[in-house]
Amino acid sequence: MHTLTLTQPPSLGSRLAQGALLSPCKSLKLPRAASRPTSPTRFPRLVLPGVRIDLARLAAYERVCGFPTGEDAVPLTYPHVLGFPLAMRIMAGRDFPLPLLGLVHTSIEITRRRRLPATGEYQITVYVDELAPHRRGTEATVVTEVRDGREDRDGVGVRVRDGDGDGVGIAWESRSTYLARHRRNEDAPGGGGERSREEPSRGERPRDEPSRGERPQDEPSRGERPQDEPSRGERPQDEPSRGERPQDEPSRGERPQDEPSRGERPQDEPSRGERPQDEPSRGERSREGRKPLPAVAEWRLAGDVGRRYGAVSGDRNPIHLHPLGARLFGFPRAIAHGMWTVARCLAEHGAPPATLVRAEFRAPVPLPGAVTYAADGQAWGGFELRGGDASGPGGGRVHVRGHVYPLVA
C-alpha cells in the first residue's frame, strides 16, 4: 500500500459527482469483480497533515447532533467528519470496485484513547483495510486515524506527539464497514440458504440415484429373497426364542446401568438455577436483542435533519436531503444519516475520555418521524434507537444498536 500525502482536503462535491457518474459502470462489473479477490493494498493510504478545526462548523455540528457547545474537546464522533473527504476520494475513485451510489454504511467502531482539543492540530490518515465477501454482496472496511501533530520547522512532514513525547500514537481511530449489495457469494460468511456444492440443482438427479425404471444394485429382483432375510417359519439368528430374555435387557425390577436412580440427577443435566454452558446469560440475551432496552426519551425528528447534518458534515447524499431524491433510490421519504443517529445517541449517552464504541445501523430512520432512545442506564452499556410502537412487546423496530465499553490501557 503506497502512501499519498495531501496538501488540502479533497473537494467533497466533485468526489461525490465522480462517484455517482462511475456507479452505473461499477454496478454492471460488480458481480464479476467480486468473484476475483481484490487486495486493499491497491488503494492508497491518504495522509492529510496540519488539520485545524473550524470552530464555527464544529459548533453547528454540536447543535445538530445534540452535543453541548463550547466544550474544550471535540465530540466523540466529530473526527469522522474530518476524515470523510479522504474516504470519499478513495471510494469514488476508478480503482475502487464498489459503486458509491447504493453503498450502505452498516457499522462503525470508534476507539478514543484521549480527548481531542478543539484548538489542536492533527494528522488524518484514511485507508481501506479489507474488501470481503458478504452474504448480501461485498463489504469494505475503511479505517480513519487521527494523530496529534505539528509541522516540523523545515515544513517537511508532520511530527506526531504521543502525550509523553514524539511518537506515532493514534489518539482516535474508527473502522467503518460499507456494504454493496449484489448477487450473493456462495462462500461468503453467513451465506445460509445457498445450495451446497454436493446438492444437485433443481431437476438434476443425484449421482447415486438410479434413473426411472432402473433397479438399484443392492435391491433384489421381484420374487427373489434377499440373502439376509430368513425363509418363512425360520427364526433369525439374533432373535431370542419364546420366553427367553435378551442378554442386554434387565430383569424385572432391575435398573439399567445408565439410568439414574430416583432423585439422582444425570451428570449432564444442570442443577436448578444453574445455567448450561452454551446458554447465554440474561444480559447476553438482552444484547442480542431478545429483550429491548428500557426507553429513556422520545425524539420527534424534523424533515430537515438530513439537510442540516449534510451541511455541517459535507455528506449531501440525495437520500438524506429531500423525499424526491430518496424516491430515486427506493425510499418513500428522506432518511437520516447513520452517523447522525449514532452521534445523537452518544450525545445523550455520554462517553468517558478513553472509550470504545461499537454501533450497527440496522434500519433507516425516515424523516420526519418519531424515534425512541433506549439505554440500560450504565456508563458502560448499551443503547438503541427504536421506531414504531416502542411500548409494544417487541419494543419497536431497532434502527441503531450500540454499546460503550471501557478502554483498558
Topology overview:
Elements: E1 3-5, H1 12-34, E2 45-52, H2 55-65, H3 78-91, E3 104-112, E4 121-134, E5 137-151, E6 158-161, E7 172-181, H4 282-287, E8 295-301, H5 305-313, H6 318-321, H7 323-327, H8 338-349, E9 355-361, E10 369-375, E11 382-387, E12 397-406
Parallel strand pairs: 1-2
Antiparallel strand pairs: 2-4, 3-7, 3-9, 4-5, 5-6, 5-7, 8-10, 9-12, 10-11, 11-12
Helix pairs in contact: 1-3, 2-5
Question: Overview of this structure, please?
Answer:
The two termini are 29 Å apart. The protein has 409 residues and is of the alpha+beta class. It folds into two domains: 3-181, Thiol Ester Dehydrase, Chain A; 290-406, Roll (Thiol Ester Dehydrase, Chain A). It has helices at residues 12-34, 55-65, 78-91, 282-287, 305-313, 318-321, 323-327, 338-349; strands spanning 3-5, 45-52, 104-112, 121-134, 137-151, 158-161, 172-181, 295-301, 355-361, 369-375, 382-387, 397-406. The protein is built from eight helices and twelve strands.
Question: How many individual β-strands?
Answer: 12
CATH class of the largest domain: Alpha Beta
- From the structure provided, what is the oligomeric state, counting identical versus distinct chains? single chain
Overall morphology = globular
